[in-house]
Input
Amino acid sequence: MQEGKKPVFWFVTGSQHLYGEESLEIVENNSIELVSQLNSEEKFPFPIEFKSVLTNSGDIEDLMRQANVDKSCNGIITWMHTFSPGKMWISGLHALEKPLLHLHTQYYREVPWETIDMDYMNLHQSAHGDREYGFVGTRLGMSRKVVAGYWGNEDVQEKIKDWMIVAAGYNESKNIRVARFGDNMRNVAVTDGDKIEAQIKFGWTVDYYGIGDLVAEMDEVAPEKIENLMDEYNSLYHLPASPEELDAVREQARIEIGLKSFLDKGGYQAFTTNFEDLHGMHQLPGLAVQRLMAQGYGFAGEGDWRTAALVRLMKVMAGNQVTSFMEDYTYHLEQGNEMVLGSHMLEICPTITATTPEVKVSPLSMGGKSAPARMVFDSQAGEAINVSIVELGGRFRMVINKVDAVQPGISTPELPVAKVLWKPQPSLSEAAEAWIYAGGAHHTSLSYALTAEQMEDFAELMNIECAVIDNETTLREFKKELKWNALLWK
Ligand code: MN
Output
């Protein structure tokens, strides 16, 4: 999924010369040991590279500027082993353009009560060294992640790991290119927006193509390639039996090959389609879109390029695990058992399935084309997040709802689409009220792999508003939060 250089995170330790060269040697050895232990845990998706112990502003600024231009450096982790006077960090932190994690930890877990002396105290004083350094970050108004606790603890390592994923997503966001076949669905408000602002804020490039450009690519697809892909489908899914239906599946194989070729030639990792714009197509892309999402491409329907880019971003962050384009479709309002049935007219990603997908060919009331083939399945149970990014006149708001997906176990034999059932936190009615006050869209990106905190951290790095709806949410506070945010984000 990652293109270009493999991400690496730099580790930098702060100190000063006050305690003598011997102390600096210990500081360096402790840092090397800490980093090597962290790497050996193998829970991090990317390696951490120890750079050096920094003791003056010139070296700090040089290192931060190197980090800015080094494409493999996805972020910096800093730790003040001893006291490191904050003024020496001002110019360097001011120059830094990469994500920053401030690890507030200490080399030893416990105080050696019997032997502790002033030498020990001077060496192991991150308790106040990191506060001095932290002040500068706050004084500069820096967006950064602060993680406190013993570095060997699982919860601390988990936080570092989660942040690395966010930082890598932040860097990858700038490479996201969306191809949109056709425009937004006519008259729809929430999917429209400012593509230039999205490029400035998130780095997303959004290019328009006529559907005829895709049809031309599909016309070039060799029949044997289609048959090979049909064999692959047969090994992965339950295919229909009748020759007519298999021909309909073949058409989706042709779309998949043509679409992938088109996207790869143009360097696109996300795309949109629009059922109102299908000239020259025999079917609306269904199975083809699901297959490409499963391969990591971002997608959203009806020309919704912003959600398509968000799905791609979240797929990169999630390592393409259990993340899909989603839509709040229909409610089950049985008292005490309220649920949302999430789905789309065709395009749900099979990375979230709990079952072997069944390929069905079924007519679609929209688009006026032949019955499209699509995968039908029930998705997994578990905690997940639904994420939407909307535009509020020159600015973006990310809205996140924590949801508990339930294993349906409910058969829907007449429903020819993939489905997810979830219970929104804190309850369906409160979540829906909060979501609507926040202006959240009906299209979302659903992920079981990412946490709300990770997406909040991403929003902070991108300097956009983020509103979270979860079990802690009360409507009264949430409405106030939106009002205060409106002042802050003007
Ligand atoms: Mn839709």
Remarks:
- The mean pLDDT is 96.
- Residues 94 and 141 are 10 Å apart (CA to CA).
- The first helix runs from residue 21 to 40.
- Residues 8-173 form a domain with the Rossmann fold fold (CATH 3.40.50.10940).
